[in-house]
Amino acid sequence: MTQQRKMIPIAKPTLDERETEAASKVILSGWLTQGPQVAAFEKEFAEVVGAPYACAVSNCTTALHLALLAVGVGQGDEVITVSHSFIATASVIRYCGATPVFVDIEQGGFNIDVQLIERAITPKTKAILCVHQLGMPCDLRKIVEIGKVHKIPVVEDAACAIGSEIQWGVEWHKIGKPHGDIACFSFHPRKILTTGDGGMITTGSKELDAKVRLWRQHSMNVPDTVRHGSAQVIFENYPEVGFNYRMTDVQAAIGREQLKRLPEILEHRRRIARAYAQRLRNIPGLGIPSEPAWARTNWQSYCVKLPAGADQRAVMQSMLDNGVSTRRGVMCAHREPSYPAGTYRAASHLSRSEAAQENCIILPLYGQMTEAEVNTVAEALEYALANAKPAALSA
Ligand SMILES: *Cc1c(COP(=O)(O)O)cnc(C)c1O
């Protein structure tokens, strides 16, 4: 018997006519790629996060690639980061011809264990690439301190962290306000705001901004926007090898509408996260995420640790059978076939990273989600924990 049932998805972007109208205006304007909309989006994004410079690019992976190149990462260098992240975090290091040096994540959370960073440093270390995993700020204050002491630049993978905040002295700062050298954001539909695909690079350094801005458009020294508006004939040249990592004006126009929704999106996600915490608190052995006193997450993902002995795949399958979509915990790059021995260095055990991948699941959380749906998810999880058995045993 097939049953029509309403699925609760893992995520769903918040989009309506505001975005479609903004995009259609750009299409009808005749200027589709990087132009005035990109410039306006950059200015508005910089204001929202409190950064002097923001440079839009095609996605966060290209943003991270340019950021690492800009701080000087090259062939034979090392970059300290986590394996426990989306694969792009480690792969961009290899784009530069450098080696990812992995350290484990912290106890009880999904961010880099800052205690392990210093002993991973060698004379080849050219950057620390820290991740604000699932939107939860990592201990940036400590990481920036280590960077200063050892004169190593800090690049923030803030793909998931638009709108997340960190306490700095008596103030709260949005992630992207420069504390590290460069921060990179994603506008993939699975993140907080979306432009389909898209990325943003923020920095406090005029020099770093100038580099990434040049490289994202083939290192063309006179952009086509300038040539187009000029009454004089201008010949451009290409002082360095660059990339085509542009964002289009269609995407930027969508992004500008998305940015206006940020406060309401954050408020809603925080309300849903509170409802989850309240509802899940009574499930024995379940680990629920929490913010350190100095951080406010945007709850890009709500990731719980299953009770000891629960079978991750069986729990997820049972929940799916009951109409609730989930995802396993964050992946570990070092366990993928594209990371054979010799392509990275493990500077510590990675046991907490591996355990988090195996024992955690991500629950649905999105803009239109209701508290009734939170309850449906919780019931499906309770049912799964009580009934789901590993496939091998029940077969
Ligand atoms: C999504 C994500 C990326 C990649 O972002 P894209 O915009 O899809 O390239 C990089 N790092 C982390 C931690 C991510 O979650």
UniProtKB/TrEMBL annotation:
Pathway: Bacterial outer membrane biogenesis; LPS O-antigen biosynthesis. Belongs to the DegT/DnrJ/EryC1 family. It catalyses: GDP-alpha-D-perosamine + 2-oxoglutarate = GDP-4-dehydro-alpha-D-rhamnose + L-glutamate. This is GDP-perosamine synthase. Keywords: Aminotransferase, Pyridoxal phosphate, Transferase. The modification N6-(pyridoxal phosphate)lysine is found at residue 191. GO terms for biological process: polysaccharide biosynthetic process. GO terms for molecular function: GDP-4-dehydro-6-deoxy-D-mannose-4-aminotransferase activity; pyridoxal phosphate binding. Signal peptide: none annotated. PANTHER family: DTDP-4-AMINO-4,6-DIDEOXYGALACTOSE TRANSAMINASE, TRANSAMINASE. The active site is at 191 (proton acceptor). The keyword Transferase applies. Gene3D superfamilies: Aspartate Aminotransferase, domain 1 (3.90.1150.10), Type I PLP-dependent aspartate aminotransferase-like (Major domain) (3.40.640.10). Its cofactor is pyridoxal 5'-phosphate. Pfam families: DegT_DnrJ_EryC1. Its EC number is 2.6.1.102.
